[in-house]
Amino acid sequence: MEGVSLRGVSKRWRHTVGLRDLTIDIDPSQFVVLYGPRGSGKSVFCRLLVGVDRPSQGTIVMNGADVTHLAPIQRGVAYVPQTFALYPQFSVYDNIAYPLAIQGEKKAEIRGRVDQIALTLGITDILAKRPDQLSGGQKQRVAIAKGLVLNRRVYVLDDPLVGLDYKIRERLVEELRNLQESLDALFVYATSDPLEPLLLADHVVVLDQGRLVDQGPPADLYFTPNHVRTATLGYPAANVIAGRINQDQDRWRVLTPVCDIPIEVTAEVASDQEVLVAVRAEQFLLQEGPSGAAGSFDATVELEEDIGSERIVHLRANGQDLQAGFSDHKTALELGQTVRVATKTSAMRIFDQLSGRCVAVGAPGIEG
Amino acid sequence: MNDDGMPRPRHMRQGLSLKAFAWMLIIPVLAFFAIWNVVPFLWLLGLSFYRYYPTFGQPPKFLGLGNYISLMNDPNVWERIGTTFLFMVSAVGIETGLGLVLGFVFWSRRALWGRRLALTLLFSPMVLAPVAAGTFFRLIYDPLYGVVPYYIHMLFGVPKPNLLGNSHTAMWAVLATDVWMWTPFMTMMTIAALGAIPKSVLEAASVDRLKFWQRVRYVMWPYGKFILLLGVILRTIDAFKTYGLISAMTAGGPGNATDVLSITLYREGFVSFDMGTGSALALFTLFIAVAFTSVYLYFLKNRESEAVS
What we know:
By secondary structure, chain A is of the alpha+beta class. Chain A has 8 helices and 21 strands. In chain A, the strands form 4 sheets. A 6-stranded mixed sheet of chain A has the order 6-7-8-3-9-10, sandwiched between helices. Chain B has 2 domains: about 10-60, no CATH class; about 75-310, Orthogonal Bundle (MetI-like fold). Chain B contains 13 helices and 2 strands.
């Protein structure tokens, strides 16, 4: 089978756990983004794929061959590590060219490929410099170039854009996407940035505390997250409101400080169970006139943030801070003004507070 | 209290200027340095221009550069320097070689069974006093009761050799002891030097498929060279002035087979009580030691300038 499979892979050290019993099949020739906060196991995942670390348990299969115990040399995976690793004695050019030279590529071929990748990453003017003469951002781009210049079937990039300035990031995101398409290889890309998965991925894998908690195409995850961690994707991240399940005969509801939400239960839940409700900013609507419909509430405008195409209104409702899009409502709001907010309850997702798993979805209110 | 309402430091409250306070802090160290370093050094420098035997009861006689001239013209002194260099170069060379091999083994095999115990045992000779180790080994080499001569006798069927009593073997027997004592130091420096390599670069090298010697040359050497060279230079300076070990084992003999500069120096000064010649020789030795130290400082300076650029 083409692609990469992990079967029950765990990575433990004496006092910490990196990955817990992770099983996943990754198709070849796609852009996979590993998304999760610091310490969620993204880097561990990358290092196990590359082979610089070995799993404590489980097997890793790559293009049909069991590579669990193979050294990096034998796997043929290109790698851009999180901490950029350059050879201190070499010029930037030689740093990028050396792995190619080791593979026995011809000089002219090497020159062409290095120049090409340098152009892509905007480091043509520093090719003659040595790593200790570079800024942090330049080193990072050289490290990316060094990883991408190799001709491999699998590329592993461990948070390569972190800390780069906004403009370069924006351009590199696009270049990485193009590069993946033209190479037609598998890219595994780890990030904690909430936007990069949506911009880059064909398939997003969400990790939390060493567990795989959610995966799927970015659009699916954005609108129907199966784990509360997935709800942090995008900007602004979904509002997460703590609440409590309430059962009234056949009708289930979540009681939150903001409003009560009718729900349809999709997993086993108990009354009084503590849950988290995720609501996307764009699911809040400004409501004209009074109405006591489900999911509507009064809130105070705290701050209005205008980011050009969009606007984010910071609200406060019964002690809970919320961010709303109000995309349908273009008129300016006054600070301190009280507004009536309606919510598309059917688009809400309800997660168990402890496991973070989706246990219920919002039921349509009396919306229309 | 001053203008901004902050309390002043105590020394300022007591009317001491900052400069005076700073001097107050360094003076004890300076005084110590002057009494124990500068004065004896000047005394030594002065003595080296005189003929002076404290045991003869005659006043010192000024010779000018006489002591130095007779030292330079003395073929024995050059022979001693030759012996010293032979000892120093062989000791440092063998210790560095063995230290590198052992250091590599201990560094690359973290999971080696009994690694910690082996390291502890390996480092134990280093903490012994050289005189104690020398005395030890004199017993080990003893032609009648010694372990080494016994095994040589058993293995090669030759009569038990008197290793320290033979001018052909004495130097190598002493050298072997020095190697036993100081290889652990070079092992430690090797482990430290390898530990200075960023893990990420080593990993990159393995992903980039660098061969072992390529890793040594492009990854390990650039990052590890300073610590390793520091070890070599420290060991060189130390081997150059080895005294305790040789004094306890052969005291320079048999004949002058192991007569290194420090032994000669001791004999001139405290056996013959020829203070003038001893002092001149000491200054000469110091001069060579300073030369090594400046090599070390040169490397250290290079390191700093590299780090800055």
